[in-house]
Amino acid sequence: SMPPPIPAPLRRAVRAQLRPTVRQLAADLSLVDEPEPELVDQAGEALLRRIGGMAPHLGIGMAGLTLVFDLSCLSAGGRYASLDPDARARIVERWRALPGPLANWALFYEKMGAFSYWSVLEARDGHD
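User: That's the sequence. What structure does it adopt?
Assistant: Structure tokens below.
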């Protein structure tokens, strides 16, 4: 049988916790030197929708790993979005090198961060 849906207030609370981290990952992995803040916001929201639209076991796992990633950044001095660019790059590189699901987590953001940013850029600029 299907697991019960996650209550909306809990989903909103998790999204609020994830938003700064996901937004910063979208910016950092956009493949753009100076990504536009408005597009980064839209790309971050697209990533949050993507995670929310995954099968529950995958979406919960992705959200959980993102929270663990963010909390692991505290050892570097703060949550991911509050760290300087060099520290963020080192942390993402460290997670890329981890085994199994953690490397897959990093790969998801690496691919989907760039894809989301460029998708909103193309939509804004009217490319098809």
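The chain has a mean pLDDT of 90.
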